[in-house]
C-alpha cells in the first residue's frame, strides 16, 4: 500500500532533518536479505548512531535536493537501504562490516564531503578508524610519556630503597 501525500511529506521532512546534520550517506542494495539479518543490521546501526532506513528513492531525492548529497541522486535506483550518519565513518563502517558477513547486502555508493564514492570508496572510508578510536589512540599516545616517567621514578625509588634495606638487615 502506498503512502498518501501527508505521509510522503512527513518522510521527506524526517530525512531532510537527518541529512542536514549528516556528513555521510551510504547506499546499499538489500535484495534477498532475510528479516532476521535486517534486524541485526538495524541494531548495529542504532548502536553506532547511524540512521538506517529503507526509503522510496524519489522521496530521498527530494530530501537531498539542494544539499551536498544531491550528487548521489543518479545512484538512487533499485531496492536500496540508506545509512545516514553525523560521524563521517560510521555509516560506511556499519554497512561495510555487515556486507563482509552477508553477501545479500551489496554496497552501491556513498557521499562524503560533497563527493560521490563508489563501492571501493565506501570501503576505504569504512577502513578509517572512527572518531572514538582516534581519540582513544591520541590519549594513549599522550599518556605514554607520563606513564614511562612514572615507571622510571618508581624504579629509581625502588633501586635506592633496596640497598638501605639490605644494610639494615646485615
UniProtKB/TrEMBL annotation:
Report if keyword Aminoacyl-tRNA synthetase is assigned. Answer: no
* Record key words, sorted: Ribonucleoprotein, Ribosomal protein, RNA-binding, rRNA-binding
Listed SUPFAM superfamilies? Ribosomal protein L10-like
Q: CDD domains, per this entry?
A: Ribosomal_L10
Domain of life, per UniProt, equals Bacteria
Q: What name does the UniProt record give this protein?
A: Large ribosomal subunit protein uL10
State how it assembles.
Part of the ribosomal stalk of the 50S ribosomal subunit. The N-terminus interacts with L11 and the large rRNA to form the base of the stalk. The C-terminus forms an elongated spine to which L12 dimers bind in a sequential fashion forming a multimeric L10(L12)X complex.
